[in-house]
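Just wondering, does anyone understand what follows?

——
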Amino acid sequence: MKKNNYKTLIYLFIILSLSLLPRLWKLEQYPPYVVDEPANLRDIDKIFNLGSYNILDFHWDFSKSQLVYLPALSLIGLLGRQESFLALRLTSSLLSLLALIPFFFIVKSLTNRAISFATTLLLSFSYYYLQFSRVGWNDIIGVTCLGLYLIWFLEIAGRKKSVFWSALGGIVAAIIFYSYRGGAIILAVSPFYLLYVLWAQRASKKVFIKVLASFGTVAILLSLPWAMKISRNWEKYNLRFRVVSIKNASIPYHGLTKREEISKYQVLTSIKSWVFLDAVDGGREENPRYLPLKEPPVNTFVRIGFLLGLLASLVKPKKVAVWLLIYILGIVFGQILTVDPPNGARGLIMLPAIYILFAVGLYKLYEVTGKNKLFLAFLIIISLLYCYLDFSYYQGWMGWIKV
C-alpha cells in the first residue's frame, strides 16, 4: 500500500472512531421522541405484520418509496422487533457515518488531506448534522449520504473515464429518485457534473458517449418502475409538496397579507439564514425540531470560513461549481419557495456544500500563509476544540429542545 493511501486510511479511521461517541450518547433518550418517528415505526410494523415488503409501496407521506425503510428493516431483523426504535435511530447514525467517507475524499480533492480531516470532523460534530444523525428520519439523512456518494462516484467515473463507476453512479441516482424529494436537486445537477469532469479530462467523443450512456441507461431503467407508480398516483405523490409550497401558504402569513411582502420575506429570511448563516426563528412548531434557532446553523469558525470560501468560489467557481449549484438550488427550492424558512429538514441537502465551501476558504488562507505547516497544525487544533464545543452545545440543546 502506498504511504499516502496509508495516511488517508488512518485519517478516516480517526474520523469514524471519534464520530461514534456523539452518535451513541444516550441515543434512545435524546432527542425526545420526534413526531416523524412514531409514523415511521407504524409503517415498519405494518410491513412486518403483513409479512410483505415492496419498494413500490408508498411511504406514509406518499412523497417517497418504502425503499427508504430497507436499512432500518435490516437492522430490526438483526436486533429484533422489540428494538425497532433503537434500530431506526441507529440507521440514521450509520448513514451519517457512511456519508463522511465520500465527503472526506471530495474535500481532499479540492484542498488537502489535513484540511479535509479537519472539515470532515467539524461536519460530523455539527449540532445541526448530529440532530439528523440521531433521529429516525432515515430518508433525510439517507438522501444526503447518497448524494455525496453520487457526486463522488461521478467524479471518479469522469477522472478514470470508467463505465463501471458511471453505472454505479446510475444505481445511486435511481435510489435517490425513490427517496426523499429534496434529492431531486442532486439528480438535476449530476449529469452536468459528469459532463464537466469528462470535459476537464479531455475525454474523447467515444468515452463521452460510453460513460454518459452507462450512467443514464442504468439510472433510467432502474427508475422506471417508480416513475410509472408516480404517474398513476400524481395527486398523492404531490400532497406533501403542496402542503409546504409557499403558493399555498395561509394568509396572513407571518403577519403579512400581500404576496409581494411574502415573497420579500421569503427571500430575505432565506438569505439571512443560509448565506449569512444567522440565527433566525422561522416560526411554526416544525422548525425547532431541526435547528436550535438560538444559534446559527453552524458555529462561528465554520461561518467565517464559509463566507471566505463563498467569496473565493464566486471569483473562481470552476472546481466547486457543482456544490455552488446544489447550495443555490437548495436555497431557492428548499427555502424561498417553501413555507417557514429556515427549515432544517429541507436545508440539510445544503449542509455538505456549506462545509465544502468552508474548506475552500481555509485552503485559500493556507495558500496566503505560503502553505505553512504550522497553519495546518493550528487548524486541526482549533477544529478539535470546536468539535468539542459543538457536541457540548448539542447536549445542552437536548435539554430544552421543542419537538
